[in-house]
Amino acid sequence: YLFHSRYQEHVLADIARYEKEHLESERSRVRMEVQAQVDRIDARIDQVEAQMKRNIKERVEEAHSIAEHLYEQHKDARSPEEIQELIRTTLRPIRFHSGRGYYFIITTQGVAVVNGAAPHLEGRNIWDLQDSKGKYFVREFVEVGSANGGGYSKYFWPKPDKEEGTYPKYSFLK
């Protein structure tokens, strides 16, 4: 009986150890699988963000070309104000990215010339405008857009079709 009792204790101890090892092994495996999925999601987010940035840049380059073309076509026949109004009325209604994307033009002094999503801002100095995180994004726009070749800015702003909340937005500035 003593031998059987000790044997049973060892068996029970072995079972407990195996259960513990198995649980640790399973936890580790699940952690690795979860991390692999997180890594895949992060990689996909990076891909989508990179594609979105490329698309935004292309659209801004197109708008810049349109504005330059309008200027070149009319510089000898119209006043700068008339050309600016022509550019404004040409770009303001254009939407892209399923209606979420729009054009805006801001002077280096922070005056909104065109804002497809918020025409009420046009003509106003928005230099001190801040996003929902307190970032002076217009100042960054001017800085980034003045750099050779332009660049991107990320800020938090309401979507044109949403009344509440702010969302991360990317703009390419030139």
Radius of gyration, whole Å: 29 Å
Strand order, biggest sheet? 1-2
Shape: rod-shaped
User: How would you classify the helix and strand content by structural class?
Assistant: alpha+beta
How far from one another are the termini? 88 Å
Share of β-strand residues:
5-15%
Helix content: 40-55%
Low-confidence stretches: none
Number of helices: 3
For the sheet with most strands, the description reads: 2 strands, antiparallel
Mean of pLDDT: 93
Number of strands: 6
- The topology string of helices and strands comes to HHEEEEHEE
Key phrases:
174 residues, alpha+beta
Note down, in words, how this protein is organized.
Strand 1 and strand 2 form a beta hairpin. The protein is an alpha+beta fold and 174 residues long. It has helices at 2-74, 80-91, 137-146, and strands at residues 95-96, 101-102, 104-106, 112-115, 151-157, 167-173. The mean pLDDT is 93. The longest helix has 73 residues, at 2-74. The strands form three sheets. The protein has a two-stranded antiparallel sheet. The chain has a two-stranded antiparallel sheet with strand order 3-4. Strands 5-6 form a two-stranded antiparallel ribbon. Helix content is 55%, strand content 14%.
